[in-house]
# Entry
Amino acid sequence: MIAEATTGDIPALCELLGELFTQESDFRPDCAKQAAGLRCILENPQHGKIFVLRRDGAVVGMVNLLHTVSLRHGGRALILEDMIVHRDFRGQGIATALLAHAVGFAQSIGAVQVMLFTDANNRSAIRLYQKMGFAHSGTSPMRLAC
# Structure
């Protein structure tokens, strides 16, 4: 079952993010930082939504959507910031279900676009995103730590 995450889910979400960030070349897990970011979203719904999929009460997957505005498209947009399924539950359609839920949520709030960034080497994620209708963009992400 997919539902909105709560602050009580933060430890499980930190564990999932730790798994995600060890897979991505640009990030390092830091549970204190991830917990602070999760709390910021969960306690301030204007920032975004975090959806979780549970099995037998345990969080086994998550997707994080951040609110923004697309000037190009003239309306609300979402950034799919993080999506991860626990390694023991992969290959069961959970990522597809989470992504479909995220897109459905975007449509339900009238979003004009969902953007995401994925690790260039994560071929399975890229295939899933393309299967669900996402296309490569001509833009290149850049970062500046403040």
The domain at 2-131 is CATH 3.40.630.30 (Aminopeptidase).
